[in-house]
Specification:
The complex is a heterodimer of chains A (289) and B (323). Chain A is mainly α and 289 residues long. Helices cover 74% and strands 4% of the residues of chain A. Chain A has a domain of 198 residues. Chain A has twelve helices and four strands; from the N terminus they run H-H-H-H-H-E-E-E-H-H-H-H-E-H-H-H. Classes of the chains: A mainly alpha (289), B mainly alpha (323).
Amino acid sequence: MGIYLTLALNGIVNGSLYFLMAAGLTLIFGLMRVVNFAHGGLYLWGAYLAAFTFATTGNFTLALVAGAVVAIVLGVIMERGLIAFVYHNENGQLLVTMGIMLILTELIKVPFGPSELSANTPNDLSNSWLVGQVVIVQYQLFMIAASVIVFLLLLWVLHKTRLGMIVRAGVYNPELVEACGIAIRRVFTMVFAVGAGLAGLAGAIAGPYLGAVTPTMGFDMQLNVFIIVVVGGLGSLTGSFVASMLIGILTAVVSFYFSSLAVLVNVLVMVVVLLIRPQGLFGERESPA
Amino acid sequence: MTPRTWQIGSLFLLLLLVVLVPVLFGVGGPTNLLEQVFAFALFAMSYDLLIGYTGVVSFGHAVFFGTGAYVAGIFLVHSGGSTAGLIVGTVVALGVSVLLSLLIASISLRIRTVYFAMITLAVGQTFYVLAGSQMLQPLTNADDGMTVPLPVWLMHDRTVYYVTLLVLVSCVWLLRLFVRSPVGQVLQGIRENEGRVLALGHSVYRFKAVAFVISGLMATMAGILYVIAQTFVSTGVYDVSISLDVLLMTIIGGVGTLYGGLLGALLIIGAQTEFTNLAGTFPIFGRYTILFGVLYIVIVRFMPRGIVGTVAQALKRWNGQEE
């Protein structure tokens, strides 16, 4: 029994980390339809900057802020400078963001070297308890809490505030929103910045959980998160949350039994979902483009 | 002279030059580099069939390249490097490639192109992990890779060089026939205006699937050439960086030009070799992938037709055939 509970808990923790990352991608890819294959690069930079900040200052809050801020800065530069000219060109976005991903992944090795950098858990969060046969780690509880807070916060902003209304309207009909006197491009840049910041934050939180940050962590994470956003349904936060937990638990179970097949299983989930519900679990049916 | 005679003339000169390389420069360094270029040129052209003629981007084309390399490698190793092993390995590799591409096409070609990119990336990663897994160790030698013995008649560097060149030239000729065939014309129609081709009553999906299968076959062939040239195969052939390098070769050379891949492969492999040498003295050159990333962006932004496409357009304008 203990093993199943442990796997379930691990799955939920995995899922929480996935969701922190997927939330940003839901905004960028799900809502704005920008195919951001550099999302993992933002996560990577967030992770490194946070690990570095924590190692030098010992202040974890500052580390989280540093991780998010560096990703926001990178995100805004990317969106304004590079992605702006490939809006409405899906293949262009794929290629440009993949180029950015290569640059970000390779550039991090210049100051920090190609090998891993250890990321320590702050003392206030490093307790653990044995409940029954299951070890509960305080840092993992912190991750679950963080993802639930981000989920509820975004849900509130998107559905209960004026800003959220503008964003959702802008996605459906940018021209009309623009005609209402709202600078929609600026709103999109802001949404992109928030999405990027969430990726950086996810990286910052992931570091201590993984124990070390490596240059490949962005690439490894990115594909799973894309799968999650598609499975959940493009643009649906609730969908991303549910899919994060689903993929998180599946990954935990599958990698426990056959570690090499985890990626394949996630892809199979995506394929099955797309075959049964092309719009994803919680997505709205869209007219064929 | 008409542009066509120029074209044929320069092509002939180029081929003559390539044929004479082993005679002029001797075998070893330069021929080995060129053999790699041949393999990757074919790989890049197979990729161009996909991105350039159907407008579909794949991030996992190394699946086919790697499968070609591995299947041929496994058959060669287990037959002790016999000619029969090479032939059977080639046939099996091509068969596996067709099955694999039909499978991937059936699940991912009907949906959005972004999903196709994701699925191909994921399938590529899975093969990478599988090839290195302990489970398949007796077959693939896991992470250590395999040294592949070649048949006796392929032992000489010069023979390998001419065999890979011959295969490349034949495949280029086949690809050229394909893109000029009625099917190839429909494919170009799909790239330009998918809705219109659909309205004309063509099954867009079926045409895309055909292009994907042929592209997979050519990439598999490229993988086999690679094994013959390198006599070694490891999980690296499935690495996503291979897929991304070949994508870069294709777009640098020129998407939809078919021959662009030849130039792209030469440039990228040349650059990689040069940078790796330089990295011995100046470690910063080891980070050359940054430059490749920049190239991705610069080409999409400023040179969407790539080198061959841009030059061809300039030549057309020169000849007064404004598009």
